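During the second half of the funding period, the structural biology subgroup turned its attention to how the target accommodates small molecules. The most pressing case was magnesium ion, which had performed well in the primary screen but for which no bound structure existed. We therefore specified the complex as follows and requested a full 3D prediction, including the ligand pose.
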Amino acid sequence: MIQLIRGFKDILPGEVELWQQIEKVARQLFDDFGFKEIRIPIMERTELFKRSIGEDTDIVEKEMYTFPDRKGDLITLRPEATASIVRAYIQHKLFAKDPVQKFYLLGPMFRRERPQKGRYRQFYQIDAEIFGVASPLVDVQLILMLVTLFNRLQVPDISAHINTLGCPKCRPGFKSALQAMLMTVSDNLCSNCIRRRDRNPLRVLDCKVPACRQALKDAPSILDHLCSECQADFTEVRNSLDKLKVPYVIDKRLVRGLDYYARTTFEIQTGSLGAQSAVAGGGRYDGLVKELGGPQIPATGFAIGFDRLAEISGLQTSDYERKPDIYLAALGEKSQSLAFEWICQLGLAGIGAEMDFSDKSLKSQMKRADRLGASYVLILGDKELDEGKALVRNMATKEQTSVSLNNILENLKKVIYR
Ligand code: ATP
Ligand code: MG
């Protein structure tokens, strides 16, 4: 038997209803905040991700699904959505009419990581991006949207972590201070961190190895190195979050793994996911549009891990599962043929109706109706056909109603919608 690829998974009925509901709530929220859906390919030229995500990142160093196509062009299954959305924004000159554009996207991403709980090789993200606004107020709006979404989805125990990454003016000063500190604890760092210490020291703060985390306990904070603009920017973020009553914690170790981020950066963490505690992350990437060949246009956005969200949402799948409204237990050829006509008509009228196509006994049909969770059962046999009426049983209350077979569809609607 051929099994699915390691790290990939099926989302089956029984679980998919929860995903659909999460999607519905998310789409509604994005819609209310003026975001438009964008759909982009799941493959792009490898170069796009290398340039936008940065060579010194886990993603580019070891996680991308990259392969030559039949003509030898290097293509990559998208590991995240921002790069492609920026590519589309530039390619279609979406900034020409109005640089301010808000997009959201739902879809699969691919990273070849070690599969484990909350970490898959094909996983899903809900992504939102705002282009053309330099004000940190829109960063605050994104954080508000995240917190709101998680509340609506009854996710327990969440907290918004925020930090700033400074700007090209003040980050270099912080970088050297951090680098100097890292030199003093080099003996306790993993080999990845040693390499990054020299090339991209901020990323050392991001390391998950416990020994490294311990060694970095007293790392300097970027907050002590901000230029006056970045200082004012971060103060505005905090004041505005306070005003909106969004609780947050300042997390000096929060650096996004991607090179194009600047200033506001944030993550939503939850206590209910174990080691994989980040359920969403985002921040400002003012340099990326230009870097990829567009004009100098600021941008900010976030990505939510859909799989992790589905795992911790307090919504119950069973509340969203569609069950048949009515099951037609038909006995005998004539009844079956009538029942078939009726289930089709009922379906067209928006009433879920099921039947058995193999002329099973009444007992086994009743059992199946029960298993399917049908709200009503109509029993139809020769006797009912002769008398021109049949019983409809309410499966929850066991109450029975006699309905005339003349004008049966209308009569059934009356019982079902009562
Ligand atoms: P992590 O620190 O967990 O590796 P990340 O920093 O790589 O996360 P981002 O690139 O910011 O993650 O992606 C945003 C969100 O997507 C994460 O917060 C997480 O919820 C989710 N995510 C990332 N990688 C995976 C994965 N392999 N499987 C499932 N969800 C994932
Ligand atoms: Mg990762």
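Two results from this model are relevant to the next phase. The first strand starts at residue 36 and ends at 37. The pocket of magnesium ion (ligand 2) is lined by residues 58 (CB under 6 Å).
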